[in-house]
Structure formats: structure tokens, C-alpha cells
């Protein structure tokens, strides 16, 4: 499993969103900057805090011209409930078997017991410009993403 890192082209994907529609990365990659964050599980304390922090800063991401996408192994139905419960304005994708997580090379955490929490900032050309990996420093995923996006403009 090769980890995608800064300077790499982010791999393409086709995954279902919270409404069960297949989202193709070609709708985003190469068109606008992306903030793609992988997280362990809907409705857990850390993941809810992270999703709500992205929600609370969502207009800042939009103002930077970027799209935010969250990915976990939860089902589309679980994502829909999570998004509605917390009024999340961005796309959540279901990677039910963790195959895309493996393609990207998102490392596990806590002795491999939990899926990792990693955020990728991808420029308009589809190149990874920054990778932030922290299971516990949740709010820094948002501040680091916004800092990198501001340097891309």
C-alpha cells in the first residue's frame, strides 16, 4: 500500500454519496481545489466534531473555491442520517469496503484498530499539495486546509 503524498496525482474514484448517487471524481478533479478528508466513523465524538468544524468553516472553503468531501466506510444511509443530524452542507462518500482508502494509502491509527483520520488538499490540477494526518488534533485539519488553500490562490 503506497501512501499518496505531496506532489502525487490524487487517484480517481467513483463512490456513492449520502443519497446513494455515484459521484465520479472527474466532476471535481481538474476543475477546482478539493479538500478530501478520511475519517473513522459517523456519529462518533471525534468524527462529529471534525464534520461540524468543516461545516462551520464551509463558507471559507467555498470562498477559497474549494469543495469539501468526507469519506468513511459508513453506508450511504448512515451518511445521510449523519449529514441531516448535523446539517452538513458537503458531500459524504461511502467507501464501504475501504478499497479507496487502501488505494490512497490512508494509514490506520491506534495500533491499526481505527481507520486513520487524514486530510488531503488537492489543487485544481488534481495534484496533492498537502497531507495532514492526525487522529486527535481534529480542528487542525480545518485550519491547515484553509492555510494551504489560501497559498494556492
Structure write-up:
The chain has five helices and seven strands. The chain is an alpha/beta fold and 153 residues long. The protein has a single domain, classed as Glutaredoxin, CATH 3.40.30.10. The strands form two sheets. The protein has a five-stranded mixed sheet with strand order 5-4-3-6-7. Strands 1-2 form a two-stranded antiparallel sheet. The protein starts with 13 loop residues before the first strand and ends with a helix.
Largest sheet: 5 strands, mixed
Which range does the strand content fall in? 15-25%
Please, what is the CATH homologous superfamily? Glutaredoxin
Strand order of the largest sheet: 5-4-3-6-7
Shape descriptor: globular
CATH architecture: 3-Layer(aba) Sandwich
Let me know the average pLDDT: 90
- Fill in the CATH topology: Glutaredoxin
Number of strands: 7
Low-pLDDT runs: none
What is the count of distinct domains? 1
Helices, by number, come to 5
Helices and strands in order:
Blueprint: E1 14-16, E2 22-24, E3 34-38, H1 45-56, H2 58-63, E4 67-72, H3 76-86, E5 91-94, H4 99-104, E6 118-122, E7 128-133, H5 138-152
What labels would you give this structure?
two-stranded antiparallel ribbon; about 150 residues; Glutaredoxin; five-stranded mixed β-sheet; alpha/beta; 5 helices
Write a compact overview of the structure shown.
It contains five helices and seven strands. It has 153 residues and is an alpha/beta fold. Helix 1 (45-56) runs parallel beside helix 5.
Amino acid at each position: 500500500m503506497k501512501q499518496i503524498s505531496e506532489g502525487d496525482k490524487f487517484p480517481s474514484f467513483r463512490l456513492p454519496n449520502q443519497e446513494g448517487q455515484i459521484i465520479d471524481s472527474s466532476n471535481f478533479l481538474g476543475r477546482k481545489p478539493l479538500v478530501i478528508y478520511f475519517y473513522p466513523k459517523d456519529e462518533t465524538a471525534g468524527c462529529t466534531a471534525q464534520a461540524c468544524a468543516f461545516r462551520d468553516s464551509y463558507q471559507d472553503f467555498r470562498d477559497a473555491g474549494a469543495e469539501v468531501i468526507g469519506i468513511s466506510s459508513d453506508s450511504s444511509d448512515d451518511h445521510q442520517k449523519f449529514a441531516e443530524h448535523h446539517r452538513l452542507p458537503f458531500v459524504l462518500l461511502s467507501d464501504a469496503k475501504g478499497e479507496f482508502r487502501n488505494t490512497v494509502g490512508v494509514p490506520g491509527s491506534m495500533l491499526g484498530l481505527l481507520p486513520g483520520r487524514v486530510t488531503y488538499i488537492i489543487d485544481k490540477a488534481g495534484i496533492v499539495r498537502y497531507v495532514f494526518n492526525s487522529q486527535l488534533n481534529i480542528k487542525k485539519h480545518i485550519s491547515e486546509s484553509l492555510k494551504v488553500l489560501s497559498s494556492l490562490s
